[in-house]
Design brief:
single chain, mainly beta, Umud Fragment, subunit A, seven-stranded antiparallel beta sheet, four-stranded antiparallel beta sheet, 11 strands, 32% strand
């Protein structure tokens, strides 16, 4: 998630929003562009809602790119999302970056063309040149809603990088 989040950053994750959604009887659905924390899948890389085997308390932080039924295409360094509102597609980085240090400014590596399955999300790290980010583009796959722990709301530490998300 560099440059947005660094390895030593300490954050607050809002687990209450996920718990409240479950209490009301539905899955928590984050907003596009939101940074979420989710449980890693099983050691085989398969993402299911069952408790992970062999991996205890391992969480991953990524940014929400696309929702069920949306098509994500990464081609020639550009990530484009196609949906009912934008059948011609929109360039994700042009539309959803909230701050100058949110994600890449010009380039996303890889070649991807996927339609996000029902009940899952397409997520990506912010450092998307080369293979710097283990995400939905390269190896992680899409993420089931049931794996989401919550959105990142505050970076507390280091103090000189304090920020609300």
């Amino acid at each position: 998630m560099e440059n947005t989040l660094l390895g030593d950053d300490r954050m607050i994750v809002n687990r209450l929003t996920v718990s409240w959604s479950h209490f009301l009887g539905h899955e928590y659905v984050p907003n596009r562009g939101e940074i979420i924390v989710f449980a890693n899948g099983s050691s085989s890389g398969e993402m299911t809602c069952a408790a992970p085997t062999g991996i205890k308390d391992q969480y991953i932080i990524k940014r929400v790119i696309a929702f069920p039924g949306e098509r994500v295409q990464v081609k020639d360094g550009v990530m484009t999302v196609y949906n009912d509102e934008h059948p011609e597609g929109f360039v994700y980085d042009n539309e959803w970056r909230k701050a100058d240090d949110d994600g890449p400014k010009t380039y996303t590596s890889g070649e991807v063309d996927i339609v996000v399955p029902e009940g899952e999300l397409f997520v990506s790290g912010d450092n998307r040149e080369g293979s710097n980010s283990y995400d939905s583009r390269n190896g992680l796959g899409t993420i089931p809603y049931c794996r989401i722990a919550g959105p990142v709301v505050i970076r507390l530490f280091p103090l000189n990088r304090f920020r609300f998300f």
